[in-house]
Design the sequence.
């Protein structure tokens, strides 16, 4: 599938300073999308935005902590204030909680995971949908996880929050299907992003790779390619789906 149809589309990405978000921004800039980027890492975000602008991209970038609804709302408002609309909202910001047994998981870890991974997605969807209703449609993609489709041993807080993302995706997709708003989630297996490689999960990457029929982790580019497909204009009849990108694990 060609991604040239993204030219001049206004695309909002949270968690844009690294990982999937950064790669999405770079690939979309190449095809002429107009970008609205948010991340709590203000310096990393500014560096990325500067590089993209030097390459000729139209970019709005501002610090955004997705646990704060006002900041998420402000990012949507920045899209509309600059470009007059919002075509695609990608709720990508997330964190990975420490690996520990279910009974050793602390309340503050659960609260933090839900604040970033679930409430952050909810806030994004809420304000993106409001704008898309006003303009007559749009596309939303939420980054969930294979941990949102099945059990996630040693990652109870993370898995619970990602299950919430899948539930929010399906619920909103049904509510707004007749309003020309498509809403899907992508559910990757472990991928070699900085969030994973810098964590305790990354230390177990060789072991985790053996759980995949392909016997390897995903690359960020493989996941981003699916994300772009899910949001593409041509993919106009797909909504309410939680799409596994897992090297075949869910085929068992």
Sequence:
């Amino acid at each position: 599938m060609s991604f040239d149809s993204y030219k001049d589309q206004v695309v909002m990405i949270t968690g844009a300073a690294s990982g999937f978000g950064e790669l999405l921004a770079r690939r979309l800039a190449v095809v002429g999308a107009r970008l609205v980027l948010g991340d709590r890492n203000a310096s990393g975000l500014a560096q990325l935005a500067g590089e993209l602008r030097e390459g000729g991209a139209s970019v709005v970038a501002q610090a955004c902590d997705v646990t704060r609804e006002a900041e998420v709302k402000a990012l949507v408002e920045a899209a509309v204030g600059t470009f007059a609309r919002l075509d695609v909202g990608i709720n990508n910001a997330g964190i990975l909680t420490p690996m520990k047994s279910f009974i050793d998981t602390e309340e503050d870890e659960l609260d933090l995971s839900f604040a970033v991974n679930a409430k952050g997605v909810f806030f994004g969807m809420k304000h993106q949908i409001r704008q898309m209703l006003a303009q007559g449609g749009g596309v939303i993609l939420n980054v969930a996880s294979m941990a949102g489709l099945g059990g996630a041993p040693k990652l109870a807080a993370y898995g619970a929050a990602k299950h919430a993302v899948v539930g929010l995706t399906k619920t909103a997709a049904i509510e707004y299907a007749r309003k020309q708003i498509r809403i899907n989630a992508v559910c990757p297996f472990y991928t070699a992003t900085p969030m994973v490689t810098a964590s305790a999960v990354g230390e177990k990457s060789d072991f985790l790779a053996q759980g995949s029929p392909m016997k390897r982790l995903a690359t960020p580019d493989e996941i981003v390619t699916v994300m772009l497909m899910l949001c593409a204009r041509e993919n106009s009849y797909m909504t309410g789906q939680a799409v596994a990108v897992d090297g075949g694990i869910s085929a068992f």
User: Anything to note?
Assistant: The chain has a mean pLDDT of 94. The chain has one domain: 4-191+219-244.
